[in-house]
Amino acid sequence: MFNENATAKLAHVGRRAIAVTRIYDVLLNPAGVAALGYAQPYANDRTNLYPGLRAPVPESFSTALRAWLTPILQGNGMLAAGQAIQRDSSFFSVVTTASGELLPIQCIPHYDSIDPNLLAAVIYLCDTRFCGTSFYRHRRTGYEEITAENQANYRLALDHDMRTHGAPPRQYMNGDSLLFETTFSNPLKFNSAIVYPGRILHAGNIRSPFVPPRDPSEWRLTITALLEVGSL
Predict the structure, then answer these.
(1) How much is the pLDDT for 92?
(2) Which of 10, 14, 47, 66 is most solvent-facing, going by the fewest CB within 10 Å?
(3) Is residue 206 very low, low, confident or very high in pLDDT (cuts 50, 70, 90)?
(4) Is 152 helix (H, G, I), strand (E, B) or coil?
């Protein structure tokens, strides 16, 4: 399922030199995995703020993903030799929410967790009509990742921003804004992936105005995963 000869490149982004890994030629049969994704029964996931539809990947895919990705990240230092990806929550994901229907919180970069042992990954199963993923720095605080130590201050600063400047425009993040500046932008390439800490500020690059897809040929299809790291 996964390509044992995939090319992995480590990058360090922002002032904090946060490690992220880009991987190319991820799947041996990406068209087949994409076809599986197109065939899934999708639903809104009300447990989070993802602006679209999701469907769980098969458990066999998750098992293979963890086994394949762990040695790659051990090899480049994102994981220590004694660490492994032990659990994951992975979904086929399709952005479907129109720009004008976004909530304010969906119009700024987000972080998945303050847990230092949580990584996130995106596998791109769409073509370059669409865009990739970017990482951001909050201008007021300079924060690039949100941790247990700075989360409360970040929320206070963000609230101050909103009271000072008003809600952000109803559009997806796609580069610098009044409140955030880009630290690194990863272009989309079919059958590539990016892996990053779940606490880094990030957002998918979605052009504005975004109009919901009319059929699967217009889907920005990805696999999004949250990866729990633990000791061997």
Answers:
(1) 98
(2) 47
(3) very high
(4) helix
Closest residue by Cα to residue 89 from 191, 226, 189: 226
Does residue 190 belong to any structural domain of this protein? Answer: yes
DSSP 8-state code for residue 27:
B
The CATH number linked to 174 is: 2.60.120
Q: Which domain holds residue 165?
A: 7-231
Tokens of 19: 């490690």
Is residue 2 situated within a structural domain? no
Q: Tell me whether strands 118-124 and 192-197 are parallel, antiparallel or unpaired.
A: antiparallel
- pTM, two decimals, is 0.97
DSSP reduced 3-state for 21? strand
Distance between CA atoms of residues 62 and 57, nearest Å: 7
Q: Which amino acid type is present at position 75?
A: G
- CA–CA dist 115, 107 (Å, integer): 23
Would you say residue 102 has pLDDT above 90?
yes
Mean pLDDT, rounded, for 138-161 = 98
Does residue 1 belong to any structural domain of this protein? no
User: Is residue 100 one of the residues assigned to a domain?
Assistant: yes
Q: How many domains would you assign to the chain? A: 1
